[in-house]
Specification:
There is one protein chain. By secondary structure, the protein is an all-beta fold. The chain has a 6-stranded antiparallel sheet, with no helix packed on it. A two-stranded antiparallel ribbon has the order 1-12.
């Protein structure tokens, strides 16, 4: 499905409200002056409210994208779209791209 490309400054959250940031943004392609994010770039998550063990599995700490754009690549890797699927560790829940740039769409 087509979706907007995700840049470093996009608002990305886990299912429990934690803020996610890319660990390795892609400096080769910029959107609105900010680097794009490649599928291979893991995200770190801060502020996840999921309860610790004994009550649940613990807060989300990192996340990985399972797929990205089928047609747009940078440095040989797919870029992330607003609707790209992801998985948080250790909860297995997805990330949500709440706010991204609204000028460049991809498939």
């Amino acid at each position: 499905m087509p979706g907007y490309l995700v840049q470093q400054g996009a608002t990305v959250i886990c299912a429990h409200g934690g803020q996610a940031q890319p660990t390795v943004p892609n400096p080769r392609v910029k959107l609105g002056g900010q680097p794009t994010v490649l599928q291979t770039s893991p995200y770190t998550i801060a502020g996840c409210s999921n309860p610790p063990p004994n009550a649940n599995v613990g807060p989300c700490t990192t996340a990985n994208w399972t797929s990205g754009s089928m047609r747009i690549k940078s440095m040989g890797q797919p870029v992330i779209l607003q609707d790209s699927p992801s998985v948080c560790v250790p909860t297995g829940t997805p990330l949500t791209v709440a706010v991204a740039q609204l000028r460049v769409k991809g498939i």
